Amino acid sequence: MLEIVMVLYTVYTLIRVYISVMQIGYISKEKNSEAILMSEERFRVAGEYAIKKERISIVSTIVDYIMFVWWITSGFVWLTSILQISNSILDSVIFLFGFIGINFIVGLPFEIYQTFELDREYGFSKITPKLFIIDKLKAVAIFIVLGGTIFAILSWIVINISNWWIWGFILLFSIAILVNLIYPTIIAPIFNKFSPMKEGELKSSIEDMMKKVGLKSDGIFIMDASKRDNRLNAYFGGLGKSKRVVLFDTLLEKLSNRELLAVLGHELGHFSHKDIWKNIIMMGVLLFLAFFILGNLPQELFFDMGVEPNAGVVIAMMMLLLPLISFIFTPIMSFVSRHNEYNADKFGSKMGGERNLVSALIKLVDENKSFPKSHPLFIFFYYTHPPVLERLKELGYNEEKIKEMTKPIKKDGIFVFLKEE
């Protein structure tokens, strides 16, 4: 049984590496072609950034594979041998803390390199080492409290209930909904400052749009994203009364009010189409299938690894194999997500103006240095949003029309729109 699991994980790893290699080859060729949506210089830079990120992804994938092999061949045995705690639930929690802690330490150099080298080189990351460490300490503290509680409850379920995987699914699915509910008002403010938007024309326009679709929120807030990163973004977060509109301060600096309203119109499209609940249902189905499959692993597998199938080992093994299960369903979930994005674009173009949404999408691509082209296989698996060129075509803007609409300024690659709506 152990050999079968090894083969499956090896195939999964090889497929991921192959997709990344195809993406690198594709972008390496395309970045030297005629630029679209941005100046020639920024087009090339965006391509180089995408390639470097994918190279990191390949190395990270290989390291994950090495760690997987180590865990199932000797890691679980080693970690079990150094824990001699009589209380089975406490033993399970400490085991899982050790399992996650080791994986965290192994993955930390990749995050540090991405944040302080690659993202800084391309003008994104502004976070200081001090703030980075503070963020990590906060995340660890939250994990110890919440994660420890969840691990304890889940371990009790595994130990005391025969069909534990059903109740384990119910527990984690309920927690996922709870996290969505409390994230905007309790968790997110631990890391960022959220300031209510000042009264004015923009706020009134946003509130009018929200009223049209029946969205009642906790308020409209500006997040101080610029202290960590220069990327642009906005989102609607939370469920029920905790829903709030969040705008990155970087977004306000780069988009006009018309463009901003079009982007928010797109997000309101997701609300109007109930995409949030659709995503929760999809997540629930995936989680249920994962628990069904991984919760019924044969005990032979654990004996082959040289360990007893106690709660800690069982839960850790589920965590190791969950990416493999998720990967199988990724294309389906990505396809559904891309479909929802097209519909949200249509909604946003009606709410905020088609041309405003188009110009906003182009600015977002340019400012975030998002290379506008990708290999079809990469899109098939990983793109939750359609390629921006496809989104623009759906809105009636082909490449020629985009070129007519924009004029690149060579100094910094910012686009000036020839006509205003």
Q: Number of DSSP strands?
A: 6
Major sheet size, sense and barrel closure: 4 strands, mixed
Strand content: 5-15%
Global shape: globular
Explain this structure to me?
The longest helix is centred in the N-terminal third of the chain and has 42 residues, at 40-81. Helix 3 packs across helix 11, helix 5 (164-191) packs across helix 9 and helix 9 (275-294) runs antiparallel to helix 11. Strands 1-2-4-3 form a four-stranded mixed β-sheet. A two-stranded antiparallel ribbon has the order 5-6. The model is unreliable at 414-421 (pLDDT under 50). The relative contact order is 0.12. The chain has helices at residues 2-30, 40-81, 88-121, 129-160, 164-191, 201-213, 249-254, 257-272, 275-294, 299-305, 311-352, 354-367, 376-382, 388-394, 399-405, and strands at residues 194-196, 220-223, 234-237, 244-248, 406-408, 415-417. The protein is mainly α. Strand 5 (406-408) and strand 6 (415-417) form a beta hairpin. Helix content is 72%, strand content 5%. The chain is globular and about 70 Å long. It contains 15 helices and six strands.
Features:
four-stranded mixed β-sheet; 15 helices; two-stranded antiparallel ribbon; disordered C terminus; 421 residues; mainly alpha; 72% helix
What is this structure, in a nutshell?
The chain is 72% helix and 5% strand.
Secondary-structure topology with pairs:
Blueprint: H1 2-30, H2 40-81, H3 88-121, H4 129-160, H5 164-191, E1 194-196, H6 201-213, E2 220-223, E3 234-237, E4 244-248, H7 249-254, H8 257-272, H9 275-294, H10 299-305, H11 311-352, H12 354-367, H13 376-382, H14 388-394, H15 399-405, E5 406-408, E6 415-417
Parallel strand pairs: 2-4
Antiparallel strand pairs: 1-2, 3-4, 5-6
